């Protein structure tokens, strides 16, 4: 269950993404409620499938309306730098062996690689704890409310679309040393190529 709260609009959205029931049910279902934050009154129900169509139903009228239809949406092509241009902990590098094993329907290898990643992360956390080092995410900072917030504030993003894209691209794709990932470089990592072939 995930919750999105907007105090300004006095609304809360509780949503659950369901992969599939253990014994029955459909894949990729979504279920949620939009309720008034101040009173808890449920205003709308959200239902459907996040890969096909989702509906919003007004609790007063009981009438469902189409909220999202994936067939009518424009899919933006993914632009990703090759694995050699990415940092070791970026998803394409970190999970490439798991992804390849899943695509090959080799769940034993997928589980082995996934377990190795998780064990390495646990080991790193223990080392930090032993030395008193606090984990410092690259893109987020711990605030006084005890939650992590993006280091790039929305107010710092220009309103102009081109300028906003440039600022976000710099923030996301700059390496810790300040250099940018090269998106023109062709992918040559055989594991990544196998994991992401169509």
Structural description of this entry:
With 198 residues, this protein is an alpha+beta fold. It is built from five helices and eight strands. The strands form two sheets. The protein has a six-stranded antiparallel beta sheet, with no helix packed on it. It has a two-stranded antiparallel sheet with strand order 7-8. A hairpin with a 5-residue loop joins strand 7 and strand 8. Helix 2 runs antiparallel to helix 3. The radius of gyration is 21 Å and the shape is globular. It starts with a strand and ends with a helix. The model has no long low-confidence stretch (mean pLDDT 89).
Short description:
This protein has 198 residues and is an alpha+beta fold. Helices cover 28% and strands 24% of the residues. It has 5 helices and 8 strands; from the N terminus they run E-E-E-E-E-E-H-H-H-E-E-H-H.
Write the layout of secondary structure elements.
Blueprint: E1 2-6, E2 11-18, E3 29-36, E4 42-49, E5 53-58, E6 64-69, H1 91-94, H2 96-103, H3 107-131, E7 140-142, E8 148-150, H4 161-173, H5 190-195
Antiparallel strand pairs: 1-2, 2-3, 3-4, 4-5, 5-6, 7-8
Helix pairs in contact: 2-3
Using brief descriptors, characterize the structure shown.
single chain; two-stranded antiparallel sheet; 5 helices; six-stranded antiparallel beta sheet; alpha+beta; 198 residues
Mean pLDDT score? 89
Q: Summarize the amount of helix as a percent range.
A: 25-40%
Q: What oligomeric state do the depicted chains represent?
A: single chain
What order do the SSEs take from the amino end to the carboxyl end, as H and E? EEEEEEHHHEEHH
What is the approximate shape?
globular
Strand content: 15-25%
| Rg, Å, rounded | 21 Å
Structural class of the helices, strands and pairings? alpha+beta
Low-pLDDT stretches are none
Question: How many DSSP E strands?
Answer: 8
Compute the number of helices. Answer: 5
* Measured distance between first and last alpha carbons: 32 Å
Side by side, the strands of the main sheet go: 1-2-3-4-5-6
Biggest sheet features: 6 strands, antiparallel
């Amino acid at each position: 269950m995930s919750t999105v709260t907007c105090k300004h609009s006095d609304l809360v959205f509780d949503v659950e993404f369901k992969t599939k029931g253990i014994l029955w049910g459909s894949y990729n279902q979504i279920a949620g409620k939009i309720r008034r934050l101040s009173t808890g009154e449920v205003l709308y129900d959200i239902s459907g499938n996040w890969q096909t169509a989702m509906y919003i139903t007004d609790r007063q009228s009981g009438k469902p309306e189409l909220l999202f239809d994936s067939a009518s949406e424009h899919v933006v092509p993914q632009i990703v730098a090759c694995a050699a241009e990415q940092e070791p902990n970026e998803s394409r590098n970190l999970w490439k062996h798991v992804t390849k094993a899943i695509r090959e329907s080799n769940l034993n290898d997928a589980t082995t690689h996934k377990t190795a990643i998780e064990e390495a992360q646990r080991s790193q956390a223990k080392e930090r704890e032993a030395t008193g080092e606090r984990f410092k995410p690259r893109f987020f900072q711990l605030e006084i409310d005890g939650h992590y917030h993006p280091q790039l504030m929305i107010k710092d993003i220009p309103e102009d679309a081109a300028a906003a894209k440039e600022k976000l691209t710099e923030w996301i794709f700059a390496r810790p040393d300040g250099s940018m990932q090269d998106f023109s470089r062709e992918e040559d990592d055989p594991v990544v190529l196998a994991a992401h072939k169509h």
